[in-house]
Amino acid sequence: MTTKIRCAWCEKDDLYRDYHDNEWGKPVYDDPSLFEFLILETFQAGLSWYTVLAKRENFRKAFDNFDLKKVSEYNESKIEELLQNEGIIRNKLKVRATVTNAQAFIKIQEEFGSFSKYIWNFVNGKPIDNKPKTLKDVPATTSISDAISKDLKKRGFKFVGSTVMYAHMQATGMVNDHVEDCFTRV
């Protein structure tokens, strides 16, 4: 039996390995998934991705399976309910930002036809393949994540700094940062 060689960051446990093997770095073009990843990445700000990933199912339940329209209409009562939910990250600014970001996401859909068209335009519609040799070769930000962050902030989004947006690019396959010897590259 041969052992799969993976990016070293995912070897913590099966949850991480499964995410790495089946989701991370695979191109995502549908708006519902892009919205989910965007919200999860904003909750990650200042925390580890593992913390968010371990609570992902709780986030899905708490945020109505990331139903964009429902989230965009959350009122103070729903926000307070979320802040009491021990299954998610209960950061008041991030919970409020989720509602704001859902509203801004809808405005982008209206302007561009879809969020996917908007976001993928930053990479000319196709993934960037960085081909890093090791994790040390993977950047935390790039000029593209800087540009996305700046534009999203201008459009009213919160918690979308360049590092968050680069992580979003990685998660949604806009950039392929699987290391050179990772089995996903074969």
Report what the structure shows.
The protein has 186 residues and is an all-alpha fold. It has a single domain, classed as Endonuclease III, domain 1 (Orthogonal Bundle). Helix content is 53%, strand content 2%. It is built from ten helices and two strands. It has helices at 14-22, 31-44, 49-54, 56-62, 68-72, 76-83, 92-112, 115-120, 143-154, 162-171, and strands at residues 128-129, 175-176. It has a two-stranded parallel ribbon.
Protein topology:
Layout: H1 14-22, H2 31-44, H3 49-54, H4 56-62, H5 68-72, H6 76-83, H7 92-112, H8 115-120, E1 128-129, H9 143-154, H10 162-171, E2 175-176
Parallel strand pairs: 1-2
Salient structural properties:
186 residues; mainly alpha; two-stranded parallel sheet; Endonuclease III, domain 1
User: Strand order across the biggest sheet?
Assistant: 1-2
Mean pLDDT score: 95
Corresponding CATH superfamily:
Hypothetical protein, domain 2
Structural class: mainly alpha
Instruction: Give the total of domains.
Output: 1
Strand content: under 5%
Outline of the structure:
It comes from Flavobacterium sediminilitoris. The protein has helices spanning 14-22, 31-44, 49-54, 56-62, 68-72, 76-83, 92-112, 115-120, 143-154, 162-171; strands spanning 128-129, 175-176.
